[in-house]
User: Which sequence fits this backbone?
Protein backbone atom coordinates (compact mmCIF):
# COMPACT_ATOMS: atom_id res chain seq x y z
CA UNK A 1 0.00 0.00 0.00
CA UNK A 2 2.79 2.44 0.90
CA UNK A 3 4.61 1.67 -2.32
CA UNK A 4 1.42 2.13 -4.38
CA UNK A 5 0.63 5.41 -2.63
CA UNK A 6 4.16 6.71 -3.20
CA UNK A 7 3.96 5.70 -6.85
CA UNK A 8 0.69 7.57 -7.35
CA UNK A 9 2.06 10.69 -5.70
CA UNK A 10 5.19 10.55 -7.87
CA UNK A 11 3.15 10.17 -11.05
CA UNK A 12 0.93 13.08 -10.07
CA UNK A 13 3.90 15.34 -9.39
CA UNK A 14 5.65 14.49 -12.64
CA UNK A 15 2.49 14.84 -14.71
CA UNK A 16 1.58 18.16 -13.08
CA UNK A 17 5.00 19.72 -13.50
CA UNK A 18 6.70 18.40 -16.68
CA UNK A 19 8.37 21.74 -17.32
CA UNK A 20 9.92 21.72 -13.87
CA UNK A 21 11.31 18.21 -14.45
CA UNK A 22 12.84 19.27 -17.73
CA UNK A 23 14.63 22.21 -16.10
CA UNK A 24 16.42 20.11 -13.48
CA UNK A 25 20.18 20.58 -13.69
CA UNK A 26 22.65 18.01 -12.32
CA UNK A 27 24.92 18.95 -9.43
CA UNK A 28 28.36 20.30 -10.30
CA UNK A 29 31.40 18.88 -8.50
CA UNK A 30 34.83 20.45 -8.91
CA UNK A 31 37.95 19.42 -7.00
CA UNK A 32 41.03 21.66 -6.80
CA UNK A 33 44.07 22.24 -4.60
CA UNK A 34 43.74 24.73 -1.73
CA UNK A 35 45.89 26.02 1.13
CA UNK A 36 44.90 26.59 4.76
CA UNK A 37 45.25 30.28 5.64
CA UNK A 38 43.86 30.21 9.17
CA UNK A 39 42.29 27.78 11.63
CA UNK A 40 39.36 29.83 12.93
CA UNK A 41 38.15 27.31 15.54
CA UNK A 42 38.91 23.78 16.67
CA UNK A 43 36.98 21.48 19.00
CA UNK A 44 36.15 17.85 19.69
CA UNK A 45 32.70 16.54 18.83
CA UNK A 46 31.01 13.18 18.94
CA UNK A 47 30.46 11.54 15.57
CA UNK A 48 26.64 11.43 15.21
CA UNK A 49 25.23 8.11 16.34
CA UNK A 50 28.53 6.83 17.78
CA UNK A 51 30.51 7.12 21.04
CA UNK A 52 33.60 8.21 19.02
CA UNK A 53 34.99 11.72 19.34
CA UNK A 54 36.58 13.50 16.39
CA UNK A 55 38.15 16.90 15.74
CA UNK A 56 36.00 19.56 14.13
CA UNK A 57 37.52 22.63 12.51
CA UNK A 58 36.39 25.83 10.87
CA UNK A 59 39.15 26.98 8.53
CA UNK A 60 39.76 29.77 6.04
CA UNK A 61 41.38 28.53 2.85
CA UNK A 62 42.64 29.89 -0.46
CA UNK A 63 41.84 28.01 -3.66
CA UNK A 64 45.05 27.56 -5.69
CA UNK A 65 43.87 26.38 -9.10
CA UNK A 66 40.95 26.28 -11.47
CA UNK A 67 38.33 28.93 -12.22
CA UNK A 68 38.25 30.03 -8.56
CA UNK A 69 42.02 30.37 -8.11
CA UNK A 70 42.80 33.07 -5.53
CA UNK A 71 39.36 32.94 -3.91
CA UNK A 72 39.15 32.60 -0.10
CA UNK A 73 36.36 30.58 1.51
CA UNK A 74 35.49 29.36 5.00
CA UNK A 75 35.14 25.58 5.27
CA UNK A 76 33.74 23.42 8.05
CA UNK A 77 36.04 20.42 8.31
CA UNK A 78 35.21 17.22 10.18
CA UNK A 79 37.28 14.88 7.99
CA UNK A 80 40.93 15.35 9.01
CA UNK A 81 42.78 17.91 11.08
CA UNK A 82 44.63 20.45 8.93
CA UNK A 83 47.36 22.90 9.90
CA UNK A 84 47.96 26.48 8.73
CA UNK A 85 49.86 26.47 5.44
CA UNK A 86 48.96 22.88 4.62
CA UNK A 87 47.89 22.12 1.04
CA UNK A 88 44.98 19.77 0.39
CA UNK A 89 42.28 19.00 -2.16
CA UNK A 90 39.03 20.93 -1.74
CA UNK A 91 35.78 19.82 -3.37
CA UNK A 92 33.22 22.43 -4.44
CA UNK A 93 29.64 21.16 -4.74
CA UNK A 94 27.05 23.31 -6.52
CA UNK A 95 23.42 22.20 -6.26
CA UNK A 96 21.66 21.96 -9.60
CA UNK A 97 18.34 22.68 -7.89
CA UNK A 98 18.98 26.02 -6.18
CA UNK A 99 22.66 26.78 -7.04
CA UNK A 100 23.70 26.45 -3.39
CA UNK A 101 27.47 26.19 -2.91
CA UNK A 102 29.11 23.82 -0.45
CA UNK A 103 32.83 23.27 0.15
CA UNK A 104 34.34 20.17 1.77
CA UNK A 105 37.82 18.84 2.51
CA UNK A 106 38.55 15.95 0.16
CA UNK A 107 42.10 14.61 0.58
CA UNK A 108 45.48 15.80 1.83
CA UNK A 109 48.01 16.61 -0.90
CA UNK A 110 50.23 13.49 -0.87
CA UNK A 111 51.98 13.71 -4.24
CA UNK A 112 55.20 15.43 -3.01
CA UNK A 113 55.70 12.79 -0.31
CA UNK A 114 54.95 10.02 -2.81
CA UNK A 115 57.46 11.53 -5.22
CA UNK A 116 60.19 11.59 -2.58
CA UNK A 117 59.46 8.00 -1.60
CA UNK A 118 59.53 6.86 -5.23
CA UNK A 119 62.85 8.66 -5.85
CA UNK A 120 64.31 6.97 -2.75
CA UNK A 121 63.05 3.59 -3.98
CA UNK A 122 64.67 4.05 -7.41
CA UNK A 123 67.94 5.29 -5.88
CA UNK A 124 68.22 2.33 -3.48
CA UNK A 125 67.43 -0.21 -6.23
CA UNK A 126 69.98 1.30 -8.62
CA UNK A 127 72.70 1.78 -5.99
CA UNK A 128 72.57 -1.72 -4.53
CA UNK A 129 71.16 -3.57 -7.55
CA UNK A 130 73.28 -2.08 -10.32
CA UNK A 131 72.39 -3.37 -13.77
CA UNK A 132 70.09 -6.01 -12.31
CA UNK A 133 68.28 -3.30 -10.38
CA UNK A 134 67.85 -1.25 -13.56
CA UNK A 135 66.51 -4.31 -15.37
CA UNK A 136 64.13 -4.92 -12.49
CA UNK A 137 62.79 -1.36 -12.74
CA UNK A 138 62.31 -1.74 -16.49
CA UNK A 139 60.51 -5.01 -15.86
CA UNK A 140 58.26 -3.33 -13.29
CA UNK A 141 57.44 -0.57 -15.76
CA UNK A 142 56.56 -3.13 -18.42
CA UNK A 143 54.36 -5.06 -15.99
CA UNK A 144 52.44 -1.91 -15.07
CA UNK A 145 52.09 -1.12 -18.78
CA UNK A 146 50.48 -4.50 -19.46
CA UNK A 147 48.13 -4.10 -16.49
CA UNK A 148 47.08 -0.54 -17.38
CA UNK A 149 46.82 -0.91 -21.15
CA UNK A 150 45.87 -4.57 -21.62
CA UNK A 151 44.32 -6.02 -18.47
CA UNK A 152 42.10 -3.11 -17.43
CA UNK A 153 40.89 -2.13 -20.93
CA UNK A 154 40.26 -5.79 -21.79
CA UNK A 155 38.07 -6.28 -18.72
CA UNK A 156 36.24 -2.98 -19.26
CA UNK A 157 35.46 -3.92 -22.88
CA UNK A 158 33.78 -7.12 -21.70
CA UNK A 159 36.36 -9.80 -22.45
CA UNK A 160 36.38 -12.76 -20.00
CA UNK A 161 38.55 -11.68 -17.00
CA UNK A 162 39.92 -15.22 -16.63
CA UNK A 163 41.36 -15.37 -20.13
CA UNK A 164 42.55 -11.75 -20.09
CA UNK A 165 44.28 -12.27 -16.75
CA UNK A 166 46.04 -15.43 -17.88
CA UNK A 167 47.20 -13.71 -21.06
CA UNK A 168 48.46 -10.60 -19.28
CA UNK A 169 50.08 -12.68 -16.53
CA UNK A 170 51.95 -14.64 -19.21
CA UNK A 171 53.12 -11.40 -20.86
CA UNK A 172 54.33 -10.10 -17.49
CA UNK A 173 56.18 -13.36 -16.81
CA UNK A 174 57.92 -13.34 -20.20
CA UNK A 175 58.84 -9.65 -20.10
CA UNK A 176 59.98 -9.64 -16.49
CA UNK A 177 62.08 -12.76 -16.81
CA UNK A 178 63.92 -11.89 -20.02
CA UNK A 179 64.35 -8.22 -19.16
CA UNK A 180 65.87 -9.04 -15.78
CA UNK A 181 67.87 -12.20 -16.49
CA UNK A 182 68.48 -12.09 -20.24
CA UNK A 183 67.70 -14.53 -23.04
CA UNK A 184 69.17 -17.70 -21.62
CA UNK A 185 68.06 -21.30 -21.48
CA UNK A 186 67.74 -21.03 -17.70
CA UNK A 187 65.39 -18.07 -18.01
CA UNK A 188 63.33 -19.89 -20.65
CA UNK A 189 62.80 -22.90 -18.38
CA UNK A 190 61.63 -20.59 -15.59
CA UNK A 191 59.23 -18.87 -18.01
CA UNK A 192 57.73 -22.19 -19.09
CA UNK A 193 57.32 -23.23 -15.46
CA UNK A 194 55.64 -19.96 -14.54
CA UNK A 195 53.25 -20.02 -17.48
CA UNK A 196 52.26 -23.58 -16.63
CA UNK A 197 51.73 -22.60 -13.01
CA UNK A 198 49.65 -19.56 -14.02
CA UNK A 199 47.34 -21.82 -16.04
CA UNK A 200 46.97 -24.32 -13.19
CA UNK A 201 46.44 -21.57 -10.61
CA UNK A 202 43.85 -19.88 -12.83
CA UNK A 203 41.86 -23.08 -13.20
CA UNK A 204 42.13 -23.76 -9.47
CA UNK A 205 40.96 -20.23 -8.65
CA UNK A 206 38.02 -20.59 -11.04
CA UNK A 207 36.90 -23.85 -9.40
CA UNK A 208 37.48 -22.48 -5.88
CA UNK A 209 35.39 -19.36 -6.51
CA UNK A 210 32.58 -21.51 -7.91
CA UNK A 211 32.66 -24.00 -5.02
CA UNK A 212 32.73 -21.35 -2.31
CA UNK A 213 30.06 -19.26 -4.10
CA UNK A 214 32.08 -16.05 -3.91
CA UNK A 215 30.36 -13.16 -5.65
CA UNK A 216 33.30 -10.74 -5.58
CA UNK A 217 31.32 -8.09 -3.68
CA UNK A 218 33.44 -8.14 -0.55
CA UNK A 219 34.79 -4.58 -0.88
CA UNK A 220 33.10 -1.21 -1.25
CA UNK A 221 35.07 -0.32 -4.38
CA UNK A 222 33.70 -3.40 -6.12
CA UNK A 223 30.14 -2.27 -5.41
CA UNK A 224 30.89 1.21 -6.77
CA UNK A 225 32.52 -0.32 -9.84
CA UNK A 226 29.50 -2.51 -10.48
CA UNK A 227 27.16 0.49 -10.21
CA UNK A 228 29.30 2.71 -12.46
CA UNK A 229 29.56 -0.02 -15.10
CA UNK A 230 25.84 -0.72 -15.03
CA UNK A 231 26.44 -4.29 -13.86
CA UNK A 232 28.20 -5.21 -17.09
CA UNK A 233 31.43 -6.49 -15.50
CA UNK A 234 32.07 -10.03 -14.30
CA UNK A 235 32.85 -9.21 -10.66
CA UNK A 236 33.69 -12.80 -9.73
CA UNK A 237 36.09 -12.87 -12.68
CA UNK A 238 37.73 -9.72 -11.33
CA UNK A 239 38.33 -11.54 -8.07
CA UNK A 240 40.05 -14.33 -9.98
CA UNK A 241 42.15 -11.79 -11.88
CA UNK A 242 43.33 -10.29 -8.62
CA UNK A 243 44.37 -13.70 -7.35
CA UNK A 244 46.48 -14.38 -10.43
CA UNK A 245 48.18 -11.00 -10.60
CA UNK A 246 48.78 -10.96 -6.84
CA UNK A 247 50.79 -14.19 -6.87
CA UNK A 248 53.06 -13.32 -9.81
CA UNK A 249 55.79 -11.68 -7.74
CA UNK A 250 56.26 -14.61 -5.38
CA UNK A 251 55.82 -17.11 -8.21
CA UNK A 252 58.54 -15.36 -10.20
CA UNK A 253 60.96 -15.67 -7.28
CA UNK A 254 60.29 -19.39 -6.84
CA UNK A 255 60.58 -20.30 -10.53
CA UNK A 256 63.81 -18.40 -11.16
CA UNK A 257 65.30 -19.88 -8.00
CA UNK A 258 64.52 -23.43 -9.10
CA UNK A 259 65.90 -22.98 -12.60
CA UNK A 260 69.14 -21.52 -11.28
CA UNK A 261 69.40 -24.33 -8.71
CA UNK A 262 69.12 -26.97 -11.43
CA UNK A 263 71.68 -25.16 -13.59
CA UNK A 264 74.19 -24.94 -10.75
CA UNK A 265 73.71 -28.55 -9.66
CA UNK A 266 74.14 -29.79 -13.22
CA UNK A 267 77.26 -27.67 -13.64
CA UNK A 268 78.88 -28.60 -10.32
CA UNK A 269 77.95 -32.28 -10.43
CA UNK A 270 78.21 -33.47 -13.99
CA UNK A 271 78.17 -37.06 -12.71
CA UNK A 272 74.64 -36.64 -11.32
CA UNK A 273 71.74 -38.17 -13.17
CA UNK A 274 68.64 -36.22 -14.06
CA UNK A 275 66.71 -37.96 -11.29
CA UNK A 276 69.38 -37.01 -8.74
CA UNK A 277 69.49 -33.40 -9.90
CA UNK A 278 65.69 -33.23 -9.68
CA UNK A 279 65.67 -34.69 -6.18
CA UNK A 280 68.30 -32.27 -4.89
CA UNK A 281 66.74 -29.24 -6.58
CA UNK A 282 63.32 -30.04 -5.11
CA UNK A 283 65.01 -30.35 -1.72
CA UNK A 284 66.21 -26.76 -2.16
CA UNK A 285 62.75 -25.76 -3.33
CA UNK A 286 61.09 -27.18 -0.23
CA UNK A 287 63.09 -24.83 1.96
CA UNK A 288 62.15 -21.98 -0.34
CA UNK A 289 58.48 -22.96 -0.24
CA UNK A 290 58.36 -22.77 3.55
CA UNK A 291 59.58 -19.18 3.55
CA UNK A 292 57.52 -18.01 0.57
CA UNK A 293 54.21 -19.53 1.70
CA UNK A 294 54.68 -17.94 5.10
CA UNK A 295 55.49 -14.63 3.39
CA UNK A 296 52.40 -14.83 1.19
CA UNK A 297 50.06 -15.72 4.05
CA UNK A 298 51.43 -13.02 6.35
CA UNK A 299 51.09 -10.45 3.55
CA UNK A 300 47.38 -11.26 3.24
CA UNK A 301 46.97 -11.12 7.02
CA UNK A 302 48.67 -7.73 7.12
CA UNK A 303 46.39 -6.37 4.42
CA UNK A 304 43.34 -7.60 6.38
CA UNK A 305 44.55 -6.58 9.84
CA UNK A 306 41.82 -3.97 10.52
CA UNK A 307 39.19 -6.53 9.53
CA UNK A 308 40.70 -9.15 11.85
CA UNK A 309 40.77 -6.67 14.73
CA UNK A 310 37.16 -5.73 14.11
CA UNK A 311 35.96 -9.31 14.48
CA UNK A 312 38.47 -10.35 17.14
CA UNK A 313 38.13 -7.45 19.55
CA UNK A 314 34.72 -6.00 18.82
CA UNK A 315 32.67 -8.69 17.07
CA UNK A 316 29.89 -10.72 18.64
CA UNK A 317 29.64 -13.47 16.00
CA UNK A 318 30.97 -16.99 16.32
CA UNK A 319 34.23 -17.90 14.61
CA UNK A 320 32.43 -20.23 12.21
CA UNK A 321 30.01 -17.51 11.10
CA UNK A 322 32.81 -14.97 10.72
CA UNK A 323 34.90 -17.34 8.59
CA UNK A 324 31.87 -18.10 6.44
CA UNK A 325 31.29 -14.46 5.56
CA UNK A 326 32.46 -13.52 2.07
CA UNK A 327 34.82 -10.82 3.25
CA UNK A 328 36.79 -13.45 5.22
CA UNK A 329 36.27 -16.35 2.82
CA UNK A 330 37.64 -14.26 -0.05
CA UNK A 331 40.95 -13.70 1.73
CA UNK A 332 41.17 -17.36 2.74
CA UNK A 333 40.58 -18.53 -0.83
CA UNK A 334 43.05 -15.96 -2.12
CA UNK A 335 45.77 -17.10 0.30
CA UNK A 336 45.19 -20.82 -0.24
CA UNK A 337 44.97 -20.66 -4.03
CA UNK A 338 48.11 -18.52 -4.19
CA UNK A 339 49.97 -20.86 -1.85
CA UNK A 340 48.93 -23.98 -3.79
CA UNK A 341 50.10 -22.38 -7.03
CA UNK A 342 53.39 -21.43 -5.41
CA UNK A 343 53.97 -24.96 -4.12
CA UNK A 344 53.16 -26.49 -7.52
CA UNK A 345 55.59 -24.12 -9.24
CA UNK A 346 58.56 -25.83 -7.56
CA UNK A 347 58.20 -29.39 -8.92
CA UNK A 348 56.85 -28.17 -12.28
CA UNK A 349 59.64 -25.67 -12.93
CA UNK A 350 62.25 -28.10 -11.62
CA UNK A 351 61.06 -30.84 -13.99
CA UNK A 352 61.18 -28.50 -16.97
CA UNK A 353 64.62 -27.20 -15.98
CA UNK A 354 65.99 -30.73 -15.56
CA UNK A 355 64.63 -31.68 -18.99
CA UNK A 356 66.35 -28.79 -20.78
CA UNK A 357 69.41 -27.99 -18.64
CA UNK A 358 70.76 -31.41 -17.66
CA UNK A 359 72.58 -33.47 -20.28
CA UNK A 360 70.85 -36.58 -21.55
CA UNK A 361 73.71 -38.88 -20.53
CA UNK A 362 73.16 -40.21 -17.05
CA UNK A 363 76.29 -41.29 -15.23
CA UNK A 364 76.38 -43.54 -12.27
CA UNK A 365 77.13 -41.86 -8.98
Assistant:
Amino acid sequence: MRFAFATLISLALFSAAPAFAQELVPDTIVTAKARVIEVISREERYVPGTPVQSWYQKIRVEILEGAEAGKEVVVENDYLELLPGEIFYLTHYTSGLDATDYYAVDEPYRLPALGVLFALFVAVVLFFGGKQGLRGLLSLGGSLFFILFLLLPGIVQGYPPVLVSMLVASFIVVLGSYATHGFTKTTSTAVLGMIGTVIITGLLAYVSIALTRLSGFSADETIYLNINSGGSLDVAGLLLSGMLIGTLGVLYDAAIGQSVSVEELASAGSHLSRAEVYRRAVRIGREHIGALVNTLAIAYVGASLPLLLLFYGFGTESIALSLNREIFATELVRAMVGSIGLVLAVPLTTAIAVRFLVKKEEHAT
Q: What stands out?
A: The two ends are 88 Å apart (CA to CA). The beta strands are 28-46, 53-63, 72-77, 87-94, 101-108. The longest helix spans residues 111-156. The longest strand covers residues 28-46.
